[in-house]
Design a protein that fits this description.
Distance between the termini: 17 Å
Mean pLDDT: 77
Low-confidence stretches: 4-13, 22-39
Radius of gyration: 21 Å
Shape: elongated
Order of helices and strands: HHHHEHEEHHEHEEH
Number of strands: 6
Strand order of the largest sheet: 1-2-3-4
Structural class: alpha+beta
Length: 201
Amino acid sequence: MQGITRAIWSCRDTLRNAIMGQITKRDSILSRFGFVSSPSRVPHKGLENVTVADVLMTKGDERTGSWLWCQTDDTVYDAVKNMAENNIGSLVVLKPGEPQLIAGIVTERDYLKKVIAQGRSSKYTRVGEIMTDEGRLITVSSDTNILHAMQLMTDHHIRHVPVIDGKIVGMVSIVDVVRAVVEQQSGELSRLNDFIRGEYY
């Protein structure tokens, strides 16, 4: 044990530089995506224990607003205007007259591929015509592990995932997921750095 301690102690500057380099890279990556720090952070409990519910909790009051919605019979024009006004990339699509029963999701990509690229008018096209319907929709529940959610999003090339617990309870984006992962890794690096400096008990 003393040998390990001496080895770590003798390499502490090298390890400290490596850790600080990772933290600097993290801050650089975060600033490129338009955020440097999250106003509310996911508690440090290890990636294997972080769930979608933890990420939703960090969204605070934005949680319900994060899944702004439209209905299948709304025009694409109104849906895209809603996205632009709220600076979001997708809307949950609800069934008319059925609050919180999801019909699908409509994204900026749907608009570009199915309206603009095909020369259609957004004012005369209904959301139900271009959305990803509930049968093909990828969803998660609030107890889904964050790494599993990230894997689903990566495998299916999607950036937004509705959170369904019998009914819609929120929406997480790839930015939310990446932020949570980076914060957890940063916490691990910080604890390792404290251990190296002898401040970890």
